[in-house]
Amino acid sequence: MSTAFIPAEIRCQAILFDMDGILISSLESVERSWAKWCSLRGVEFAAARAILHGCRAVDTVSRLRPDLDAEAEMKIIEDWEVADGEGVRILPGVPQVLAALPPHRWTVVTSATARLAPARMAQAGLPAPRQFVTADHVTWGKPHPEPYLAGAAILGFPPEQCVVFEDSESGTRAGRAAGCQVVATTFSHRPESLDAAHYVVEDLTGVQVNVLPGDEGLLLRLNAV
After folding, report:
1. Total Cβ atoms within 10 A of residue 150
2. Of 92, 148, 101, 153, whose CA–CA distance to 127 is shortest?
3. Which has the closest alpha carbon to 53: 146, 188, 194, 191?
4. What is the pLDDT of residues 87-141, one digit of tens each?
């Protein structure tokens, strides 16, 4: 049976993109690195895999091995991920969406570190935003709203005038709690786990960005599922 799509239009001033699962996929590298760490530290990889996506590495380590120095362990994982760009790829529709956006109207809000985020964008061959919001820039990671509040602030727009693109349950919850409009993709999570999103799409294919005149901002057109 074919999927029924519902056309939607969203007016906004700016877009806040999650990185992994929205702009790029580094799933293979992430899981290889975490599998190595789990083997090193005696953690079941399945337990790590169930909670790591969409969350800061330091928070995941703290949950899995609270007896260890989470910052030090995060650095080990970070080194492996930065060095491992194999399989990193751009997700569908992304180049067209980014090409349509003025630089001051978008940024990346990611649970990756300040060192890893630009490396991932470069590995995929995508332009970096003027500024990132990374795990290093916030006290509380997703699903706390702080990352998306910070993203709106660095662009200079109220969060309610920003659209968040996310693929994880924790990320959609963070965007919703920040007061943003949230569009979720089904890259990594089933639609029923993305109920914090206002709209759900398969990916960025078919998302159209129109820059409105003057200071009127952006008009997004998409097909929700």
Report:
1. 20
2. 101
3. 188
4. 999 999 999 999 999 999 999 999 999 999 999 999 999 999 999 999 999 999 9
Residue 162's DSSP bridge partners are: 14
Question: Phi/psi at 19 (nearest 5 deg)?
Answer: -95, -70
Q: Which of 164, 208, 210, 170 is nearest to 184 (CA)?
A: 164
By annotation, the residues acting in catalysis are: 18, 20
Q: Which amino acid makes up residue 109?
A: V
What would you report as the CA-atom Rg of the chain, rounded to the nearest whole angstrom? 17
Please state whether the predicted TM-score (pTM) of the whole model is above 0.85: yes
